[in-house]
Amino acid sequence: MTSSLVPRMQAHGESIFVTMARLAIEHGALNLGQGFPDDPAPEAVAEAARRAIAQGHNQYPPARGIPELRRAIAQHQGRYGLELDPDRHVMVTAGATGALAASVLALVEPGDEVVVIEPYYDAYPALVDLAGGVRRTVPLRQPDLALDVEALRASVGPRTRLLLLNTPNNPMGKVYSRAELAAIAEVAIAHDVVVVSDEVYEHMTFDGHEHTPVAALPGMWERTITISSAGKTFSVTGWKVGWATGPDELVEAVAHVAQWLTFTGGAPFQPALAEALDRVDELVAPMMDSLRHRRGLLLDGLTGAGLVPRTPEGSYFVVADAAPLGVADAHEWCLRLPQERGVAAVPVSAFCDAPEAVATLARFAFCKSEESIREGCRRLAG
């Protein structure tokens, strides 16, 4: 029997996250690969959600999000020097992936080209294919992960419609420098390209690195959709509340498509997250202190197990090279790890069109408990 799935989506099988989670459960392994935190939500945020449920915030919220949350998002973006009108420049979505899907489907026609910098979050290629777009990838240079500006320029042509950017980057933990963002802006402006910037790890930067939204650069506000979410920032990934911000025309396009995808959601979570965003620095600080410590534990543990990890500037992922262990194919190695070592990791090749340069790299998450990190590294070393 032939597949019922449309041909353009047949190249996208089971997500690597689903595969590794399934294998972790099957073998009772510690899942150090998937980016859902062991940390509870801040108690103030959880209490605000409980209070909203008790107060009856359980029906459909407005399609663009409740006014209180849109105001909080607009105010939050003000920290970057961006002045947003919450009624015109903000759209609440079903998680960041909901915003990404609505953005790509709203702006890409079949045959339009979309530039994607790799390694990329694995939803990007699937969404481009879903829209009928043509993907053009620009690999980050190895091993320093510098943006290859000449390759970026060469990837853009007359059919280029979008550029998908992710900073801080998942899976690599790279925070784009101001100079790299300026190069992206120069290309986007010169070729009239819209940038969709995925910034869900914006509050997770280390060692003096600072997150800069590309929309804050000269000439970029009018051509950028900025996407973020509450899931990573407040350890509430299951709440699935994200947002897209940008100029009227682009946000209107996102809103038009989003209404036919997920319409709206997260009714009791929206007022809770409005309160949380108003206190984001206070609420995130303890989490960042803990993540900084656990990052060190994971880096030391992976090194002790014989891998060569890269110290991330942002996100809560560490990418490590397994080649010193004799691994030539990290994808195959990661599929064996849950059964052989009781640990799950994610191969970086799953995030690339051209996996050769990252064939021996695997991603580990340090948003897990100290106990899980220590035990996982012990098992890897065993």
From TrEMBL:
Its cofactor is pyridoxal 5'-phosphate. Pfam families: Aminotran_1_2 (PF00155). PANTHER family: FI04487P. Keywords: Aminotransferase, Pyridoxal phosphate, Transferase. Transmembrane segments: none annotated. Belongs to the class-I pyridoxal-phosphate-dependent aminotransferase family. One of its GO terms (molecular function) is succinyldiaminopimelate transaminase activity. This is N-succinyldiaminopimelate aminotransferase. The keyword Phosphoprotein does not apply. Residues 30-380 form the Aminotransferase class I/classII large domain. GO terms for cellular component: cytoplasm. The keyword Transferase applies. Its EC number is 2.6.1.17. InterPro entries: Aminotransferase_I/II_large (IPR004839), Kynurenine-oxoglutarate_AT (IPR051326), PyrdxlP-dep_Trfase (IPR015424), PyrdxlP-dep_Trfase_major (IPR015421), PyrdxlP-dep_Trfase_small (IPR015422). It is an enzyme of class 2 (transferase).
